[in-house]
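Researcher: Re-running this chain for the archive, since the previous output was lost when a drive failed. Same request as before.
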Amino acid sequence: MSNPLVTVMMGSPRDFPIMKAGTDLLEKLGVPFEVFVSSAHKTPIRTHHYVEALSSRGVEVVIGGAGAAAHLAGVVAASFPGPVIAVPIAATELQGADALLAMVQMPSGVPVATVAIDQPGAENAAILAAQILAKKHPAIAASLSELQSKAHKPSDAPTSTQGPRVAVVCASETDRPFMKRTTAILEELDISFEVTVQSPVRDPEGTRAYAQGLAERGVEVIIGGAGASAYLCGALAAYVHLPVISVPLPTTQLAGLDSLLSSVQMPSGTPVATVAIGPMGAKNAALLAAQMLSVNDSALGSRLADHRSNIGKTLIQEADALMETLPEEQRGKQ
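Model: Regenerated C-alpha cells:
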C-alpha cells in the first residue's frame, strides 16, 4: 500500500460502522488512507502525538468522526496545517445535533469542513477529500470523473489557469457585507478570486450555467454565502465536483440555524463543506479554501502557516495585556 494521503480518525471503535461508509468510498476512488482511533478527551496525548506526525508522513487531508461533545476534529485542526473534514455521529439522545454544532461552530482562524450527520456525512467526507486531492493526483481526478459520469454530472477538469482560483458567490446583494471578511483574507493570502451574486431560486438557469462554467475557467474552490433556506451551495455542489464551502448567514429570526442545517445536511454524493454561522464562518471559509489549495501549492502553504502563527501571537499579546491588569499573585505562570 502506498503512503496514506488521508487519515480517517474517530473517537471510539463504536464510530467505525458509520465511518466505514467513507473508507469504502475512499477505497473505491483509489485514495490511499489509514484509520486511527483516538479520543480527544480520553487519550489526549496519544491523539496529539499522532496528529503532530501526520504532515511529515505525507498525509494531506484528515477526516474526523465523533459524537456527543465531538471535539476530535477541532483538536486535530488546531495542529494539522491541512484541511480537516468533520463527520458528526449520532451517539446520544440528541441524534448528532450536539456533535454537529460542536464541529461546525469553530472559532475564527481554525476552520473545520463539517458535513452531514452519520453515513451520508461519512460518504460525503470521502468525496470532499477526493475533490481536494484531485488537482494534485490525476488518478484520483479520473476516479472522480467516473463517479461524476455515473451521477450524470459534467466533468470538472480545469482547462484554464487564467481565471480566479476561488469563486465567492452570494445568494443576494445583502449577503455581500458578510462575505467581505472572506475576501479580505483571500487578499491577504494573495489568492485570486471573484465575487458574484447568483440565486438558484430567482434565476436557476443562470446559476446552473455559471456553476458549470467555473472549472473550465480555472476556478478550484467555491465559497457560497446564503441565509434562510440557503439553497445556494447545495445547488452549486449539484452542478460541479469542485469543493464547495458554505457560510451560513444569520438573516432570519432563526439566527442562521436554518441556513446551517440546509447547508450541512446534504445527501450522500453531494458534499458541502460547512463552516460556522456568520463572521467566524466567513473568515474560516477563506482559510479552509487556502488549506485546500495549499495541498498543491507549497508557497501558499507557507503564507497560510505565517497567518496562523500571527493569530497565535496576537492572542498571546492580548493575554499578556490582560495579565498586566491583574495583581502579580493572580497572574498565571508558565
